[in-house]
Amino acid sequence: xxxxxxxxxxxxxxxxxxxxxxxxxxxxxxxxxxxxxxxxxxxxxxxxxxxxxxxxxxxxxxxxxxxxxxxxxxxxxxxxxxxxxxxxxxxxxxxxxxxxxxxxxxxxx
Length: 109
Prior knowledge:
This protein is mostly helical. The chain has a domain at 26-99. It has helices spanning 2-19, 26-45, 50-71, 78-99. The longest helix is centred in the middle third of the chain and has 22 residues, at 50-71. The relative contact order is 0.15.
């Protein structure tokens, strides 16, 4: 009897993580990681000054918060995913524009 109980407990323990998966947004997660790298590269190269970088990082945090809100109910609907993708598109364009504007960090002497 103990063996049956132990076997059932083991099966339940192994099956539980499969049921407890949170909604996945792998495409968005990959995009966010790429955008973070672009912001860091812009800071390192001088294409982004401190104010621009801080503003972009704040927008990045807002995108992450929106993603967490979408995942809160355990499911990311197609409408939520579309909205998150649009926000990511907008942020990506802002990163490009800020990196390619005429402002530059003054050279250190």
